[in-house]
Amino acid sequence: MTKPETARPNGLGERPDLREAWERVVETARRTVADGLVVGTSGNVSARVGDIVLVTPSGVPYDRLGPGDAVGVDLDGRQVIGELAPTSELPMHLAIYRDTDAAAVVHTHAVHATAVSTLVDEVPAIHYMTCALGGPVRVAGYALYGTDELARNMLDALRDRTGCLLRNHGTVVYGATLDQAYDRTAQLEWMCRVWLTAAAVPGYTPALLSPEELRSAADKISGYGQPR
C-alpha cells in the first residue's frame, strides 16, 4: 500500500483567504494553458492578498500544482511562503503591485498578441473593447525576461492602462480580481487576432476607431452588465 504524500508546510496556515487565493491562482494558470494562451510553463499568474503576493513557481507544470506548492513573497520580493522558487518574472508582478491598485496579474505568451508586439508600437484600435484596457494598448520596449529593465519598460507602457504587450514576448494584464485580469487578457488576444486577420487581406486597410468613438464606447461600457 502506497503511503499518501504529505504536503510540505507552505505557510498558508489557518488563512482561508490565502488558501482560496492560491486555489484561484492555480485555476487561472491552468486556464491559460487550456485556452492556448501559453505553452508548457510559460506565462505566470499572481494575486495579492494584503502585503503578500501569491505567484506561480518557476518551471513547474500547472497541472501538478497543489496546496503544498504555494509560493508567496512580500512586496520587497522576500519569500514568505513555500519552498519552490517563484516565477522568474517576479519583478514585473511586484512592479505592478507597487505602482497600481491591482489585486491580480496575468502574463501570457499568447500567439496573436506576441505576433502584434513585433509589428507595431501600439495595438491599433480595431474594436471598441480597446477601451476596456484604458485605451490603445502600448508595446513595451524589449528587454531580457525576468529583469528589472523589463519591469520598467512594462510600467511605462502601462501608464493609464490595465494591460500592455511586451515586445517579442507576450502580454501583461492586471485587474481587481483574477477573473477580471484573465478576461482582459483574453480580450486583448482576441483584438490582436482580429487586427492581424483584417490587415492580412490584400488591398484593404482595416478601419480603426477614432479617440472620440473610443470615449463614447468607454462611457457605454462603464454601465455594462446587470444593474446593481
From TrEMBL:
<keyword id="KW-0479">Metal-binding</keyword>
<keyword id="KW-0456">Lyase</keyword>
<feature type="domain" description="Class II aldolase/adducin N-terminal">
    <location>
        <begin position="23"/>
        <end position="196"/>
    </location>
</feature>
<dbReference type="InterPro" id="IPR036409">
    <property type="entry name" value="Aldolase_II/adducin_N_sf"/>
</dbReference>
<protein>
    <submittedName>
        <fullName>Class II aldolase/adducin family protein</fullName>
    </submittedName>
</protein>
<dbReference type="InterPro" id="IPR001303">
    <property type="entry name" value="Aldolase_II/adducin_N"/>
</dbReference>
<dbReference type="Pfam" id="PF00596">
    <property type="entry name" value="Aldolase_II"/>
</dbReference>
<dbReference type="InterPro" id="IPR050197">
    <property type="entry name" value="Aldolase_class_II_sugar_metab"/>
</dbReference>
